[in-house]
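Researcher: Structure prediction, please.
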Amino acid sequence: MRFSIITLGCKVNAYESQYYARTLQEKGWIEDNENFDVVIVNTCAVTNTAAAKSRQMLHRAKKKNPQACSVLIGCYAQVATDEEKQKIGADVLIGTKDKNRIADLIAASVNDHKKVDDVQDVSSAFAFESMPIEQFESKHRAFLKVQDGCNQFCSYCIIPYARGRERSLAASEVVSIAKDLEKKGHLEIVLTGIHTGRYNDGEHDLCDLLGMLLRNTSPEIAFRLSSIEITEISDRFIELMKKEPRILHHLHIPVQSACNATLKRMNRPYTIEQFKERIEQLRQEIPDISISTDIIAGFKQESDEEFEETLRNVQDIRFSFMHVFPYSIRKGTAAEQMPGTVHGTIAKQRVDTLLDLSARFRQADMERFSQGDVLIEKEENGQWHGYTNQYHPIVIESSEPLSGRVHVRFDRIEDGHYIGRTVKED
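Model: Predicted structure follows.
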C-alpha cells in the first residue's frame, strides 16, 4: 500500500507525521506523494484559516486520487463539528487520542470498506500516548516528544480543547528513547511538546528529566527545548542551564504581547514586568543566551496605544528574533465572543513593523558572536548548513566534507545567517 502525508501546523505535528510515516513503513507501506492508496492530512486548528486549509488539503488530495482512502487526523479532526465532518467526507477521522493506532484504524477502513470515526472526548485526563521515532532524516538532530496537552486556556487558543489536558511521557521512557537516538548517531535532541515546560510524569518535573538525560547520555549529546513559558523558568532551571553547557543556550519564550492590557484579555498568566524581570535574570546568569519569542499582532481591541506599548517593551527586551502572527479568530475560544476586531490591514501593518524589528534584533544578536560550535544539518551545492548553539543559521564554506558538530569562525552575516568556515582550515 502507498501513502502520502500532508502536514499542517506546529513542530509537534511535524514530529507526529514522522511517527505516522515510520509506523506505516514498518508495516511495509511505501510513501508516495503522487500515486497513493491512502492520503493522511495531519491537521491544525489554531485558527479558522488553519482549519480551512486542513479541509482544502484533503479535498485537493481526494480530487487528485478519488479512490484513495482519506484520513483526517489531529487537532482539527478533534474539534470539527458534525456538520463539518459530514462536508469533509473523510474515510477515517482520528482526533488527538489513539493516534498511535493510525495503522490499525486505516486498515479497518480499507479492509472493511467502511468509514471510521475515532474522535473521542479529550476533556478528561488520559495517558500520554508514546510515539517514539528511532531515527530522523537529519543525521544529527533528533526530536523527542515528551509532553502533550495544555491547561492554560489562553482566550485566543483552541489547543486545550483540541489536545486535551496536560500529560507527559514517563521519564524512564524518555531516557530510553534518548539513548536509542544516541546509538543511531544523533548528537542533539530537542525536547518538544505542546507545553514542554510543564513536563511532569507524576514523579519528575522538567529539571529532573534534564538531569536524568544528562546523566544517562554521553558528553557529546546536547539538548534543546522547543519552547518554554516564562512562568516555567524557575531559579532551579536557570541554575541547571548555567551549570550544564550541554543544555544549549537558546530559549524560545512566547510573550504573545508586551502590553499588560492585551495580555490580560489574552488570559496570559504574567505581566510584562514579570516577563522582563525573568529575562533579565536569565541574561545575568547566562550572558551568551539568545532568547526568541512569538507575538500576536492585532488581537481583539488592540489599540494603537497598546501596540505602541508592545513596541516599546519589545525594544527594551531585545529578543534574538521574533515569530510574528496576525490574530485570527478561532471558533470555540473565549476571544471569539470579544468585541473590537482589528482591521486586517492594520494587523498586517503591525506584523510588518514587528518583523522589521525582528530582523534588526537578529542582526544585533548575531554580531555578539565571532565563532562557535555548529551542528551540521545538510549539504547543498557544496555548502554545509547548520545552526549555532544560539540557534542562528549558518552556511559553511569548506573544501572538505563536514559532519557532526564542528567549531566555526563566523566571517560575516548575510540575510539573517552567518557565512563561516571551520577553524581548523585557518
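Model: The domain at 2-117 is CATH 3.40.50.12160 (Rossmann fold).
Researcher: Thanks, that helps.
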